[in-house]
Amino acid sequence: MLKKDNLKFGILLGFLAPLLSLVIYYFVKFYPLFTIRDFMHFISTNRNQVTAISVPCLVLNIALFTYYINTHRDQTAKGIFTITLLYAIASLAVKFF
User: pTM higher than 0.85 for the full model?
Assistant: First the structure.
């Protein structure tokens, strides 16, 4: 399944990877101290933490993008790159506005 070269598949991977990273980040850094609801409230009220949380979430997308570029699956890489840019712009918008 990961051997597809499809733009829609890249968009799906690019969307799901940061969500998976956010869940992992929650369990590694915040699990004993915060519930999921408290964690989401923490993110929404502390805008200075948005960058600290969004960067690790986008690292998995960077790894996926690099993998798909190196294996010459350019359409999938294009989808991952597009969603990565959208996530980055959205996190900057949340931080500054």
Answer: no
Are the CB atoms for 80 and 65 separated by under 8 Å?
A: yes
Convert the pLDDT of each residue in 32-83 to its tens digit.
888 989 988 888 788 778 888 888 888 899 999 999 999 999 999 999 999 9
Tokens of 55: 């960067």
Query: For tokens 């986008």, what's the residue?
Result: 58
Rounded-to-integer distance, Cα 22 and Cα 16, Å: 10
How buried is residue 97: exposed, middle or buried, by Cβ count under 10 Å (0-12/13-18/19+)?
exposed
